[in-house]
Design a protein that fits this description.
8-stranded mixed sheet, Rossmann fold, alpha/beta, globular, 8 helices, 44% helix, 8 strands, single chain, binds NADP nicotinamide-adenine-dinucleotide phosphate, 14% strand
Length: 279
């Protein structure tokens, strides 16, 4: 990993932050793609003190806004001519039905559309850097997408919105892996495990009680990162692509049958909503 250029989105907290520390310990050049400059500067200072590495850059990107994602991609490309590893990790949960400035339900926009757009905007740079790796942090909490309710049209349920977005991460992974076959770029999705992080702060009601019981037994972010880091650095994963992995082994998708129709529908929709056009 030494001197590899590595973007981690959402590196200011939780799993992303633990991955950032692992990357720096291994000599990688980290680009933290995060939304909160003040918080990121504090995390950057801590990471620097802990790892004794100063190969830490910061590019601001708010995933609520496609404009912000586009600016971040442009900024990255103006500074770097290589991207060896892209880790799409940032995500949110939202108790309330909120829409972005682009009129899209916030969870779907932040968790799927923003990384979809970012990845596509960076793809030419990644292709120039092959062999390269893309890792999408998904979740075992995923469910078949109801495309008629993806934007909360029928009803908004915070868990459902999150689960759709995480299924979108997996479908996008499979789609992109196929598109990039033979290019030297691998694309995999991971379930990080149940990890005690800030992502659960929005949870209310009975689920909050449930979380109070299980979270003390959950992974620490560092433990979770220890299962993801081999996908970034190990030669064992050099040619592995199009997988959904947990603790480095394949995990079953919770959707039966052929995923091709959903993959296609999601791809067309994502291109249209992000302004990347039809395929
Ligand atoms: N924790 C679990 O049990 C669990 C289980 C399965 C999957 N996952 C997945 O693991 C990944 C990491 O989550 P985590 O548990 O580490 O959560 P976390 O600690 O809440 O970290 C989420 C990261 O995403 C960033 N983020 C949130 N909204 C954003 C936005 N609008 N624009 C830009 N960045 C934004 C956060 O930024 P701020 O620091 O500024 O808030 C933070 O850096 C996610 O993809 C999540 O779905 C987690």
């Amino acid at each position: 990993m030494k001197n590899k250029i590595i973007i981690i989105t959402g590196a200011s907290s939780g799993v992303g932050r633990a991955l950032a520390e692992g990357v720096l310990q291994r000599g990688g050049h980290l680009v933290m793609l995060t939304r909160d400059a003040e918080k990121t500067e504090a995390v950057r200072a801590e990471l620097k003190a802990k790892t004794k590495s100063d190969k830490i850059d910061f590019i601001q990107a708010d995933f609520d806004s496609f404009e912000s994602v586009r600016k971040a991609a442009e900024k990255f490309k103006s500074k770097y001519d290589r991207l060896d590893i892209l880790i799409n990790n940032a995500a949110t949960t939202n108790a309330d039905f909120l829409k972005t400035e682009n009129g899209i339900e916030l969870t779907f926009a932040v968790n799927h559309l923003a990384p979809f757009l970012l990845t596509n905007l960076l793809l030419d740079t990644i292709k120039k850097s092959a062999p390269a790796r893309i890792i999408n942090v998904a979740s075992n909490a995923h469910i078949k997408i109801d495309f008629d309710n993806l934007n909360g049209e029928k009803k908004f349920d915070p868990f459902l919105a999150y689960k759709y977005s995480k299924m979108a991460n997996i479908l996008f992974t499979f789609d992109l892996a196929e598109e990039l076959r033979g290019t030297g770029i691998t694309v995999n999705a991971v379930h990080p495990g149940v990890v005690n992080t800030a992502i659960y702060r929005q949870i209310t009601g009975i689920q909050k009680l449930f979380l109070k019981i299980i979270l003390p037994f959950a992974f620490t972010p560092e433990k979770s990162a220890s299962y993801i880091l081999p996908l970034i650095e190990s030669e064992d994963f050099a040619g592995v692509s199009g997988k959904f992995l947990y603790k480095t082994v394949p995990l079953k998708i919770k959707q039966k049958g052929d995923l091709l129709a959903d993959r296609r529908e999601l791809r067309v929709l994502s291109k249209r909503l992000t302004g990347l056009g039809y395929l």
